[in-house]
Amino acid sequence: MAKKKVLLMGKAHSGKTSMRSIIFANYLARDTMRLSPTLDVEHHHVRFLGDLVLNLWDCGGQDAFYESYFERDRETIFRSVELLIYVFDIESDCPEKDFDHFAGVLEAMEENSPDARIFVLVHKMDLVAEEERELILEDRKRLIEESCLGVGVQHFQCFGTSIWDETLYKAWSEIVTNLIPNIGVLESHLSDFCRICDADEVVLFERATFLVISHAQAKRDNSDDADGGVVKGLITDDKEQQHHEEGNEDSAEVNGEAGWAENADELAAEKQGEMSTSPHSQLSSPIHDAGDDGMATPQTPGSPGGANATHTAGNTAVASNQVGGKASSNQITPSSTPQFDAHRFEKISNIVKQFKLSCGKAQSQFQGMDVRNSKFTAFIDAFTANTYIMVIVSSKTQVNGQEWGTGVHKAATLLNIQKARSHFEQFIPRS
Questions:
Q1: What whole-number distance in Å separates Cα of residue 318 and Cα of residue 301?
Q2: Cα dihedral across residues 389, 198, 331, 333: positive or negative
Q3: Distances in Å between the alpha carbon of 244 and those of 23, 238, 321, 379?
Q4: What is the rounded average pLDDT for all residues in the chain?
């Protein structure tokens, strides 16, 4: 079991504990008002993706504590750090002191953990007038860069965040992705899965936090071949097929519990799409043309208009698909289509996580859902033991009178998700 030491630092009342509670303790933003200020250092062991444990040090931000961090407890606090998250309050009444503390933290990090990755969050951006946010954030980033360069720190990432929108999920998705050791391999296999399903986009979410950990986007060209790829041989025999069908019957019972349809309507309104409340597992349509690799191959009419589908399907940010500065060789390269909402994945993270929590309050277990409108169908389903998956397919093209994303194609997509689970367990181990 891998343990990673993560420092969470910043001035008092900057919002460190609030964001930690939202991401890892399932707090709603409004519930953070009752949290008390952190005194000294609070230690939290947070399990992520099953076998990855974040040893999170939430450090109080009062001046007296910083004196202790820099002097008596300097080596204890700053040694063996994998990742530093430093939080600035955009409305701080003493920014000069904030930057003095920040410079001191950077010096201690360079001395004790020079290889640690550094993330800086400019928090509470919701308190800034919308028309001024970009300008003010860029100015604060410039000051942060000057501080970093002043102590010899060349590499860092900076985000503007707020607990009231998707920016918090964007920042933390980027942060935790840096801690996944085999992320390049995972992205490559997810890209192959996206191609095999003939999907427009595929997104992988961590099960507990619903943070985005990887995504793939279709690259349409004449060389597309749905018969092959990394997921060959997932369907093996009739016995395995029967086993999966029995498991799907259990999922149907979960999806049918009380409170499902009522809460689903709220999410459907958010998505501006039509919610399908029929369980995923009831594949009423036959699967045609299952290839030798066992993956069900939909009858493809060509490119189903991916740009429009992903524009309306999501609303979320595309995390970097590079590891160590190099893109994976098998990776599907995102197109530079201006219609994409830069925050589409994180908006979905936020919406679905809140809906998932609502299901829990209604004594129901969230398994998955379909969201459909005139332009796309989104399938969100439990995937591996520690992840959920979302598959986006366009609905603009019709095959034999059926919309893309319904009927045979829907059945093929859901069967592919089912059969890919055991394959992806190799890269996302069970806890």
A1: 27
A2: negative
A3: 32, 10, 32, 18
A4: 74
